[in-house]
TrEMBL record:
Keyword Nucleotide-binding: yes
Lineage top rank: taxon: Bacteria
Lineage: Bacteria, Pseudomonadati, Pseudomonadota, Alphaproteobacteria, Rhodobacterales
Gene name in the database record: pstB
Keywords: ATP-binding, Nucleotide-binding, Phosphate transport, Transport
Domain ABC transporter: 18-260
Organism: Albidovulum litorale
Protein name as catalogued: Phosphate ABC transporter ATP-binding protein PstB
């Protein structure tokens, strides 16, 4: 695999897709995210790294308002998608999540057929006018998730019957089926074996040509392989954010250096 493949195309100046400013998150009295500013570039993979419990998942969930579903969670600050405030009262979080899709740590296909897993979002959002159009979206999404060849002859089989790596690619197909603009991935490979991990990493590299991808990862090797930008979180603070190559070879903050050299975390 082409290590650090994203760092060589520095001539591309990506547009800002999501801008977060002064973000604070509280779970009751627990101040989990402390005044975080970050810009997520379009058509770029951004990695969030840092020790367990530092707030990576919490911050990721702010970006598509998944924290709204947690009663004790309170989010402050401003987050915009293409300049529009995603926490504005007029924004429907369900619509937002079609635009800002999410893939979780553990593959979680619905207990439905492969076809129906992928068709789920397009159906609830009314994206297809006919069965033929829905078929087309399902095929395109499965192709985009590099799964079509493996499942095209058994679209009616249950999604839960696939291997772990296939299930995760099915979840990616389900997320891309609503034509999102941003894909959030929370440790998408941590339940996968090395071969399935490599396939998902290859896929992420393809997805970035169309989407802004944000990936939380435990693995610094993975961050180095797949991302162009890296954000290092520590105790709820965004300590350092920059080009992945710089973060790993020339960190500016001693906390980042301690983490990447294995002294913390
Ligand atoms: N659903 C939740 N309810 C209450 N506290 C939570 C919840 N999720 C996370 N936290 C707390 O927020 C902090 C950050 O956690 P998390 O975002 O899961 O970190 P990470 O993903 O970096 O491991 C931790 O103190 C954790 O206990
Ligand atoms: Mg997490």
């Amino acid at each position: 695999m082409n290590v650090m493949r994203q760092t060589d195309d520095t001539t591309a100046t990506a547009e800002i897709k999501i801008a977060a400013k002064g973000v604070q998150v509280y779970y009751g009295d627990n101040h989990a995210i402390k005044d975080v500013d970050v810009d997520i570039a379009d058509r770029t993979v951004t990695a969030f790294i840092g020790p367990s419990g530092c707030g990576k998942s919490t911050f990721l969930r702010c970006l598509n308002r998944m924290n709204d579903t947690i009663d004790i969670c309170r989010v402050e600050g401003k987050i915009t998608l293409d300049g529009e405030d995603i926490y504005d009262k007029r924004v429907d979080p369900v619509q937002l999540r079609a635009k800002v899709g999410m893939v979780f740590q553990k593959p979680n296909p619905f207990p439905k057929s492969i076809y129906d897993n992928v068709a789920y979002g397009p159906r609830i959002h009314g994206l297809a006018r006919s069965k033929a159009e829905l078929d087309e979206i399902v095929e395109k999404s499965l192709r985009r998730a590099a799964l079509w060849g493996e499942v095209k002859d058994r679209l009616n089989a249950p999604g839960t019957g696939l291997s772990g790596g296939q299930q995760q690619r099915l979840c990616i197909a389900r997320a891309v089926a609503t034509s999102p603009e941003v894909l959030l991935m929370d440790e998408p490979c941590s339940a996968l074996d090395p071969i399935a991990t490599a396939q998902v990493e290859e896929l992420i590299d393809e997805l970035r040509s169309r989407f802004a991808v944000v990936i939380v990862t435990h693995s610094m090797q993975q961050a180095a392989r797949v991302s162009r930008k890296t954000a290092f979180f520590h105790l709820g603070n965004l300590v350092e954010f920059g080009e992945t190559g710089q973060i790993f070879t020339n960190p500016r903050d001693p906390r980042t250096e301690s983490y990447i050299t294995g002294r913390i975390g």
